[in-house]
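Entry — protein

Goal — fold tokens:
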Amino acid sequence: MLTLFTASLAAAQDDSAKIDKAYGCVLDKVKGKCADLTLDEQAFSLLALSYQSDVKDECKKALLEKSEDNKCWPKGGCKIRDTALAVLALQHIGGDSSQAVQWILGKNGTPKDLTWYLQIDAREETACKISYGGKDFTTKINADKTFSQSAGSCLTKAQNNYWLQISPGCLQQTFTVSCDKAFISNLIYRKTNSQVFYVSSDTKSAPESGSTENQVVSTCFGNPCEYEGSLWATLALSKAGKDVAAFLPYLNALATDNEKLFPSAFLHILTGDEDYFSTITGLQGAGFWDLKSSQGKYYDTALALLSLQNANAEQADAAKQRLLETQPGTGCWGNVRDTEFLLYSAWPKTPTKGGGEVTYCKDFNYFCISPGECAEAGGDQLGNYFCPSLSATCCTKPSVEKTCKEKGGFDCKEEEECTGSSLDASDTKRCCDTACVQKPTKPECEVQGYLCESSCGDNQEEAFYGCTAGSVCCKTKEVPPLKKSYWWIWVLLILIVLVILGIIFKNRIQLFLFKKKSKGGPSGSSSGFGAGPRFPPTSPLPPRPLSGRNQARIPGKLRPSEETDKELEETLKKLKEMSG
């Protein structure tokens, strides 16, 4: 356990060092040079590096100098996307962006390529009156939910008579519906000529003889509508605490035509809808997100991570780890803008307060949650209060905790696994957005710690445990201890014994060998050795103590006895057996 903890601590320290290296890389490229950066780079510098007071002040000044009197960006040719990005950067550091917000609101337009329908539903057949433009029109909801007739020139039967299509010239009308039975009404829309329909979240209900009011509210930015500009402008207005519901139908309906701009990332921030979460996580590749846009994979990955900042998503963790594993030696990923965007989305730092510019949301016991969660909780968005995440707004109420079922998910059992993405639910940690399937059961072979393979290798042998069809259970061959790791000890011991015996019987062996060699010639002389060795005179020598090997030097004992020969032969035989 201690080893695992130590390894985890070391990995965390290594990750922290890599993150610091990335911050150091962009600081080197920005500090003292902010005036020379592009507008995008200046904006993302404020988002990522405003924890450094001097960089924050420098880049704020440089960004404002690129504006048209602090109202829009860039000077001399204001654009919706650029102005929205500048607004987000100024909001992040507590700067004044009120004039720019008003400029964006003045650029709203009406989408021309959406088709709208009015739907009325009741549990039983009912007669209804629809009023608009100062006139009343009657129709009937049949038992099969179809309309019996159209309701004037603005509302004509459509889609097999289940809905009433709203004529393009009547989109500004308010349609008041009253029926003689309890009913509900809502608006449905789609991109013209598309078969994908969207149901308005504003569904109204009324009792018998009650009434509902239904009005198309659909806005974009630009004339004609600019999709990318509308994405960023809606995000900026939401961060400023503005109601952005009117901009969502356009962004929803045209999302499939603008997939490379990653609309699901923006829409998940704006609505908190789990469907967008599933779309985002489903688009992840090998750690990164790459929508083949002109911005590149690092920018796309930063957008995805930005949208998942408030979600407990394993896909976000995997992306962060992949970024650190593939970090270039310089510390930066791609260019300056991409690295700043990644740092802000994945490892954001809180900006310095700097003279009370920033009013923190949590300091006043409010809640930093997504705009969609705030609307669902019935809270008010406070645009003048700071939340560190671009995907969060300051809300007067906390988010509503939802169960897995309420989120439309499936609660997987312990023996099951999720086929899609995990959802953050209040009642379970195993909430799945798609379906739960039985975890594959391990074969008995793998339970025992062996491997199921098509065939066993040279260093393996078959173990008789069950495997899947077409494979056998293989385990590593066990090598006998002597051969595997201790054979050299036995060899060493044998050599030591041989050396000791050699020392003990040295003279006897020499004498025995001489004896064998001296019998080679016909007259007892040694073949090839001349007259043979010379010996000392046979006269007696002064007496001296004799022991061990000195005994072989005594005159008169040049020929060992038969008993000695036999003993020596036995010794040699044993030595031969030991060495063999």
